[in-house]
């Protein structure tokens, strides 16, 4: 009796697993997770510098211009970390660096790939790989 290829029972890719002795001990479920972050490369800042950066950011958020912030800091005797007086350009650069730093801190995302079954192979045999995907 002739059977056409369309009706012939094809072996499913997962049916290999039915022929494995001790199936549970030879197959593991693996999960691959990729985490991307830039927050690991952010250096720690001293308390004094952190306080100054937050003050500049809050004054700018309240609507003060860079010139007003630099004039305020100079009148209060607050100097840059290098000991110089503040200029509007110093304030602008400081704000830009602080905002980029905040953006990097929260720029973390992860990708969780679908779970896969892995068939364990015996170590030490020639040509065998540690894990074979099925």
Major beta-sheet overview: 3 strands, antiparallel
Low-pLDDT residue intervals, each spanning 5 or more residues: 128-134
Helix content: 25-40%
The order of strands across the largest sheet is 1-4-5
How confident overall, as mean pLDDT? Answer: 76
> Which word captures the global form?
rod-shaped
H and E order? HEEHHHEEE
Provide structural commentary.
The chain has about 130 residues and is of the alpha+beta class. It has two domains: about 25-35 and about 115-134, no CATH class; about 40-105, no CATH class. The chain contains four helices and five strands; from the N terminus they run H-E-E-H-H-H-E-E-E. It has helices at about 25, 45-60, 65-75, 90-105, and strands at about 25-30, 35, 110, 115-120, 130-134. The strands form two sheets. It has a three-stranded antiparallel sheet with strand order 1-4-5. Helix 2 crosses helix 4 (about 90-105) and helix 3 (about 65-75) packs across helix 4 (about 90-105). It is rod-shaped.
Entry keywords:
single chain; alpha+beta; 2 domains; 3-stranded antiparallel sheet; 5 strands; disordered C terminus
Task: Write a compact overview of the structure shown.
By secondary structure, the protein is α+β, with helices and mostly antiparallel strands.
How is the topology of this model organized?
Layout: H1 23-26, E1 27-30, E2 33-37, H2 47-61, H3 66-76, H4 88-105, E3 108-112, E4 116-120, E5 131-133
Helix pairs in contact: 2-4, 3-4
């Amino acid at each position: 009796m002739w059977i056409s290829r369309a009706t012939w029972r094809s072996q499913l890719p997962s049916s290999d697993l039915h022929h494995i002795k001790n199936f549970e001990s030879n197959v593991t479920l693996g999960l691959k997770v990729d985490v991307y972050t830039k927050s690991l490369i952010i250096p720690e800042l001293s308390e004094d510098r952190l306080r100054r950066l937050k003050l500049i950011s809050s004054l700018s958020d309240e609507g003060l211009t860079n010139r007003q912030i630099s004039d305020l800091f100079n009148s209060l005797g607050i100097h840059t970390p290098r000991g110089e007086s503040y200029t509007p350009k110093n304030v602008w650069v400081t704000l830009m660096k602080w905002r980029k730093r905040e953006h990097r801190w929260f720029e973390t995302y992860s990708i969780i790939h679908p779970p896969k079954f892995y068939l364990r192979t015996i170590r030490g045999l020639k040509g065998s790989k540690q894990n074979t995907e099925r």
